[in-house]
Design a protein that fits this description.
single chain; mainly alpha; three-stranded mixed β-sheet; two-stranded parallel ribbon; 23 helices; globular
Length: 600
């Protein structure tokens, strides 16, 4: 059996013997079919955890948009020495002057580490340290990074060219801190949810509805995503600071936004539901994959019967002496999980179209007329559009569709988001094409153009359109993706499913890093146009590949004989007859769905 400390038992709603019995308010089959579903109430600590996320994201996104200008551009001629350009000019703030290729490489490697390392830290928190402890360690690492970064804004270091030492140290320390924080704060939030099973309640107007755990999860995650982007909008303040004051203030603001984090965590510690580490199924999953590949070969991957090769019954029938610590149903759980996460393979193209390949969008902004607006402030329209649209979806569109009994399923929503991101990518390509045509330096307009004003007579505010389209597309893609991961993954595999989702975001950054040599003049138009075309094609393929999921609210695990030496994870939303699995994890490892998106 899984390792379970004395006294740490499963909550009643996770006990199949209790769930098979009646409970107060349990909906009948008829009520499941006819009653409207509504979210439950959110506890106060859930909102406070969202504030924690706001502080961390504000300090992170206050820094992230500035990397490209700091590395790419030199100190402006005639500036104040702190990196700010002379007033009344079209110059951009700068510091190191290492060029677009190096700037793109630093930007992409920074984000790549922030999204790839959570695979390690998620496992570490699950099996060794616990989530809250690793969050606290991540916050400590963040503090070191911010102090070093403020030092990199010192005038003397900028003038002597030695600012790169503390700056590059701070950038990569910051990415490690973010990776420690990312995979743990969302499941900590979900640990606090109290709506755990579907329950029939009567509203004040007399309407009978089902208080639904899935709807509760959707609502709290939309709030969570909203606070992420409010934090992301703090990049406006840092962008104006670099433009008009200098790097010292641009780096000091994120440090000040970070400072409430330790106090908030101290205040929340004794008020949270916390689970000690309980182990992970990751090792057994890798062993299942290894056996399948060894027995079937690489060409068997994805074909019928591939996963059967790791089933103990199949191994025994073949007369092989391979030790296994699982049963046949666990292998089926692994198969279904990887089948479900196939949808995440389409997300890198969405992210590329949303933000541009590598630092292409930032390079485009340097070719446009700013009239005093910092070139990197425009990217905050991505967050602004999310801040504006999240409440509309949360309290407007989705409740209206539920009231009208219109099923706007998760695959349909993701398809909408993929299509919107492709349109945004096409918008970038069109705008870049016109910038090349009208720039005094032609197709080399982003390479420190010094002819005339050095920019095309096109307002930078045109970039707000593709940025906003991309931001809204995230709302349609990210939240339903995690709902699918929850409903289709077995109980003890949801942490792995979410880690795989995050890793696909890292793949998007890896693509940007690999393309660093071509994310430059004169290729920027195709840097936008190529992904936009690919995104349009993949949107169609995605819909026809996964549209059947819209007809399935949940896919059940049928593992009825739990006797494995597994340690796993459970989502706090709770297990019920719609999503039950008895491939039972350790209680201390419950609630491990990470639910992380690109904007986290």
């Amino acid at each position: 059996m899984a390792k379970t400390p004395p006294g740490d038992e499963h909550a009643p709603y996770l006990n199949p013997s209790i769930m098979e019995e009646d409970y107060d308010g349990k909906p009948t089959d008829e009520e499941f079919r006819t009653l409207r579903r509504v979210p439950g109430k959110l506890p106060i600590v859930a909102y406070l955890i969202c504030v924690v996320e706001f502080c961390e994201r504000a300090s992170y996104y206050g820094i992230q948009p500035l990397i490209s200008n700091y590395v790419n551009r030199p100190l402006p001629d005639g500036g104040n020495g702190y990196g700010a350009p002379p007033e009344g000019t079209q110059q951009t703030a700068g510091a190191l002057g290492l060029g677009t290729v190096v700037a793109n490489a630093v930007t992409q490697s920074f984000s790549l580490l922030a999204y790839a390392l959570p695979m390690l830290f998620g496992w570490l928190a699950d099996s060794k340290t616990g989530r809250f402890s690793l969050i606290c360690w991540g916050v400590g690492v963040f503090g070191v990074a911010h102090v070093l970064m403020v030092a990199a804004g010192a005038k003397d270091l900028l003038a002597s060219g030695t600012a790169k030492v503390p700056y590059f140290l701070s950038v990569y320390i910051l990415s490690v801190g973010a990776a420690m924080f990312k995979p743990n704060v969302s499941p900590l939030l979900l640990d606090q949810m109290t709506t755990t099973v579907p329950k029939v309640i009567t509203l004040a107007d007399g309407e009978r509805v089902i208080q639904d755990p899935e709807s509760t999860t959707e609502r709290v995650m939309l709030w969570f995503y909203l606070l992420i982007n409010v934090g992301g909008f703090m990049g406006v303040a840092t962008s104006y600071s670099e433009k008009y004051v200098g790097w010292w203030l641009a780096f000091l603001i994120p440090l000040l936004l970070y400072l409430p984090l330790p106090l908030l965590l101290w205040f929340l510690y004794k008020r949270l539901i916390l689970h000690p580490p309980g182990g992970s199924d990751l090792g057994n999953v890798f062993r299942v994959i290894s056996i399948c590949i060894k027995r079937g070969g690489i060409m068997k991957v994805g074909r019928h019967g591939f996963w059967d090769l790791a089933k103990p019954s199949n191994i025994a029938a073949a007369g092989l002496n391979i030790r296994t610590a699982w049963n046949d149903d666990f292998v089926e759980d692994v198969r279904r999980t990887f089948q479900a996460t196939g949808i995440f393979c389409f997300f890198p193209i969405q992210y590329i179209n949303d933000n541009g390949l590598g630092s292409a969008a930032n390079f485009l902004s340097t070719m446009l007329t700013t009239n005093g607006v910092p070139n990197d402030v425009i990217g905050n329209f991505n967050s602004l559009s999310i801040i504006a649209m999240a409440p509309v979806l949360n309290y407007g569109l989705y409740p209206l569709l539920r009231r009208l009994n219109i099923h706007y399923g998760p695959v349909a929503r993701i398809t909408t988001g993929l299509a919107m991101s492709s349109l945004g990518g096409a918008g970038y390509a069109i705008l870049n094409s016109y910038a090349y045509k009208q720039s005094p330096c032609g197709e080399y307009g982003s390479t420190d153009c010094t002819i005339g004003d050095g920019v095309a007579p096109i307002s930078i505010w045109w970039m707000a359109i593709p940025y906003a389209i991309g931001g809204i597309s995230e709302l349609f893609v990210n939240v339903p993706a995690y709902g699918i991961a929850y409903s289709r993954a077995p109980v003890n595999m949801r942490g792995l499913v979410s880690a795989l989702n995050l890793f696909n975001t890292a793949i998007a950054y890896a693509i940007g890093l690999a393309c660093s040599s071509v994310v430059r003049d004169p290729f920027l138009t195709w840097d936008f146009g190529g992904p936009a075309i690919a995104g349009g094609v993949l949107t169609i393929i995605f819909y026809f590949t996964f549209r059947h999921i819209d007809h399935e609210e949940y896919v059940l695990s049928q593992n009825k004989d739990y006797h494995l030496k597994l340690q796993g994870t459970v989502n706090v939303v709770g297990e019920n007859e719609l999503n039950k699995s008895v491939n039972r994890p350790a209680p201390i490892a419950e609630n491990e769905e990470m639910m992380i998106s690109q904007k986290q």
